[in-house]
């Protein structure tokens, strides 16, 4: 009797197909390399990452260990050499930036915090590790996430849009939605990334162009260098601007940037290169020394300096945002209930007034032809009227009428 290969290894949890691809690209492994290590073809690995098939047995366990999905899914906090925040997979010869140098240990002003959302925020004492979700209530966990991410996220959205008011509005909108869907956000692999993606989507919505207050950006900085940098960033296409801010500003790796922008790694790398080149051309002075073989230099330090130098309004307190979110949810619930009541009433009125039997419609009128025109006496002439008058007068004064007698 043979032993089945679909034993306990087949029950090992695997992430979604999209997450499998992201984990493979984060480890800079190609489909052929994974296929050779597991013992399958590249087409089979592609089927695993598109959801058409799933590995089983020993291949499932080997594939799980290879892509590292069994590791704790926490926000990337390793150096640039380990999490891929400064390296890019090869797209073409001499087309991608070189790996960024590792930053020294310790808190800096242009290095992302452990949650991966801060941008150019002063960290004199460092940002401590986030508390465990199980040791806090929902309100405390939400307030902690809001306090760690809201100020830096407001600065990010300002660099993304150039509107201080829109940045504050987008961050508050994202956190209101996060509170309404807090069970989903709290169990997410990266809650700060969830809120960041929601705020970016709201801030970059094309419907804001219809608002008169958002048709023009806020006044640019007085410093010529900062003014030129911000003007160059705002002149980029929205997708290039977002990719540049996530990779060089926030410090995400290229696979994470591609996943958040819903693009392939190759497309994200091309957008990043084109954005850096466009900004370098518009700046009065080069942002940094660029190697001709690797392309323009990263813009981490200029973006950090620009973010710290600009005055951005402070977001409201977390309890205020939670109260506003609950108020908005209550208003939408009442509106839905009122609409349902009106719909039910209209339906009942229609059923009550609708006919219960068929009524044959009246035939439309038809034109009758062949009937002669209506005739009558002709109009009297003046002579006829004179004669009629004379006759009437004679009958009043004429002889008496003879009545015959019967013998």
Automatic annotation (TrEMBL):
Transmembrane residue ranges: none
UniProt keyword annotations, A-Z: DNA-binding, Sigma factor, Transcription, Transcription regulation
Pfam families in the record: HTH_3 (PF01381)
Residue segments, region Disordered: 1-32, 41-60, 67-137, 365-385
SUPFAM superfamilies documented for this protein: lambda repressor-like DNA-binding domains (SSF47413), Sigma2 domain of RNA polymerase sigma factors (SSF88946), Sigma3 and sigma4 domains of RNA polymerase sigma factors (SSF88659)
Ranges for domain HTH cro/C1-type: 21-55
Superkingdom, natural source: Bacteria
InterPro entries: Cro/C1-type_HTH, Lambda_DNA-bd_dom_sf, RNA_pol_sigma-70-like, RNA_pol_sigma_r2, RNA_pol_sigma_r3/r4-like, WH-like_DNA-bd_sf
SMART domains membership: HTH_XRE
Biased composition (Low complexity): 41-54, 92-124
Family stated for the protein in its record: Belongs to the sigma-70 factor family. ECF subfamily.
The protein's name in its UniProt record: Helix-turn-helix domain-containing protein
